[in-house]
Design brief:
The structure holds three protein chains of three kinds. By secondary structure, chain A is of the alpha+beta class. Chain A is built from eleven helices and four strands, in the order ααβαβββαααααααα. Classes of the chains: A alpha+beta, B alpha+beta, C alpha+beta.
Chain lengths: 281, 151, 104
């Protein structure tokens, strides 16, 4: 048998495509598909979440509270004049009766923040009480959280994060060995998404909060001053005031302020009036 | 901050894997092509398991072996491919290089011994020992063996 | 001892066979090599230390197979086959087997 030496032709066992192109295609496909799944399932979860009855919401709230409270590692104040004032004076005036009823939890810490959990649990840090300069300012912050609660935003968010979590588990991204560097990135992106209400939710809560504050005081004066100060301080983040905490859960303030001013103009709301001082404690 | 650092490390590893991996791959392919053309005169055949054999007085078994590793870029690329499905292009060059290198090492030994032909060549691929106790992704061992004959 | 992976030895005739002979060895890599390999997993390329280790181990497997054939009184092993398998994390088995024969 005759042997004719000939070189083996190249590019048959190897796909002649640029690796970066392939990588880009992969990333794009995965991002697109996960975005599609995330939004459709998230929408479904929200739709289901807002159908939850007040009784179930109370139970969910209890469960969340018992896991959240220890994680916050701040001192919970059980009896305090400030707690009494928030629970029995300010909140009923702003929110009226709600189902399930609102409960204030006051934390003794310098963090400037307020948050709402499903089941009507409002978390307030004493740092916030020190940072506000009038009752009008505080009322707006609380009314904002109450509005979130009334729109059932915490439930929606819970539904969304549950979907995200189960999705990640199903995909096995967390356990995929060959993607060792990637999983924490993905899950952290998930956390970041879960941390914030959507812009529309924030705007709706802002609008309702302002209208409630105006109903209560007869004007919107000073209500937004706290936000104005935050907006001014925003460039120097992480200062002594722990302001960045508030920003981590509430999106940029300047834009919100502009939107609220616009709204007040359209509705013809009075945006100036007498200041209501905070009670002395 | 922690997130940012993690992303930064991830991206720089990815870039390092891509550029270094590509550089070494090109270098390797260049050397493979050169040696292949140099040793083309010795035939490697997969027949010859059964007689009759070509006229030969001596025979000896030769083994060529190579362990080749992926780069970070390829690993991530293949991992993403795992989610989408389809042809894992990232590993094609890896295995191609491994097989050709193993065959070349087989030939080199046979030529040194003075073989005129290598009969019944067999190739085997196995994935071995991943580093750091992970699943054995990325390290591929290729062996090529055959019987060299001398006139 | 003549080793081939074909069914005989060219230029010789098989007069007697003794059945299958095999040699195997299980080897573990050590941590130092692991660190190097971990680095290689980032930039890619041949892991020379692993290649050498596996080569040595395969040689050992072959020697064990030859020893078996020797004690049987064979002077050649034909139709030799190799196999590599990962048994546990960090250990690989290298295995060689063939038919021990006497050729003239």
């Amino acid at each position: 048998m005759k042997y004719t030496p000939k070189p083996i032709p190249e590019g048959i066992n190897v796909t002649p495509q640029h690796p970066l192109l392939d990588f880009g295609y992969l990333i794009a496909t995965i991002v697109l598909i996960s975005a599609l799944i995330f939004f459709s399932l998230g929408w479904l979860a929200e739709w289901l979440a807002i159908k939850i009855s007040p009784t179930t919401e109370t139970q969910i709230g209890q469960m969340l509270l018992s896991t959240t409270m220890p994680a916050l590692s701040s001192n919970v104040l059980q009896t305090d004049p400030r707690l009494d004032y928030l629970q029995n004076n300010l909140l009923p005036a702003l929110a009226g009766k709600t189902q399930p009823p609102l409960t204030v939890h006051l934390f003794d810490d310098d963090i400037i923040n307020a948050a709402i959990l499903p089941g009507g649990h409002i978390l307030v840090w004493t740092g916030l009480l020190k940072a506000v300069q009038s009752e009008n300012e505080l009322a707006f912050v609380l009314a904002h959280e109450v509005a979130h609660f009334k729109h059932r935003d915490p439930l929606r968010m819970l539904g969304r994060s549950l979907v995200m979590l189960s999705l990640l588990t199903v995909l096995g991204i967390g356990n995929n060995q060959s993607l060792a560097g990637l999983p924490s990135l993905v899950s952290q992106t998930g956390e970041l998404i879960g941390l914030q209400y959507s812009r529309q939710q924030e705007q709706a809560a802002d609008e309702e909060a302002l209208s409630n504050v105006i109903q209560h005081y007869g004007h919107g004066g000073q209500a937004l001053d706290f936000f104005k100060r935050l907006a001014e301080k925003e460039p120097q983040r992480g200062g002594e005031l722990n302001i960045s905490r508030y920003f981590s859960t509430h999106p940029p303030t300047l834009e919100r302020l502009a939107q609220l001013a616009q709204l007040a103009k359209v509705r013809g709301w009075t945006m100036t009036g007498a200041i209501t001082p905070l009670p002395r404690w | 901050m922690g997130n940012f650092l993690e992303i930064l490390i991830f991206l720089s590893l990815l870039a390092l894997g891509y550029f270094a991996g590509r550089y070494f791959e090109r270098k390797h392919y260049k050397s493979i092509r050169l040696r292949e053309s140099q040793m083309l005169y010795i035939p490697l055949v997969t027949f010859g398991a059964k007689p009759p054999w070509p006229n030969a007085k001596e025979a000896k078994l030769f083994v060529g072996c190579v362990v080749i590793s992926t780069d970070y870029f390829k690993t991530i690329s293949a991992g993403l491919r795992n989610l989408v499905g389809g042809r894992v292009m990232a590993y094609e060059t890896l295995l191609d290089r491994g097989r050709r290198e193993a065959l070349l090492r087989l030939k080199e030994q046979a030529i040194e011994w003075g073989a005129s032909q290598i009969l019944n060549v067999r190739l085997e691929t196995s994935s071995i020992w991943g580093a750091e106790g992970k699943q054995s992704v990325g390290n591929v061992e290729v062996i090529a063996y055959g019987t060299g004959i001398k006139e | 001892m003549i080793l081939t992976n074909i069914e005989g030895v060219p230029g010789k005739t098989i007069v007697e066979h003794f059945g299958i002979v095999q040699g195997s060895t299980v080897r573990a890599k050590h941590v130092g090599k692991d660190i190097m390999a971990g680095f290689k997993n980032i930039i890619g390329g041949e892991i020379k230390s692993y290649t050498e280790l596996l080569n040595e181990s395969r040689q050992e497997a072959i020697e064990r197979m030859v020893k078996q054939a020797d004690t049987l009184g064979a002077n050649a092993i034909i139709n030799v086959r190799f196999a590599t398998s990962s048994i546990t994390q960090g250990a690989a088995e290298l295995f060689a087997y063939g038919t021990a024969v006497r050729v003239e």
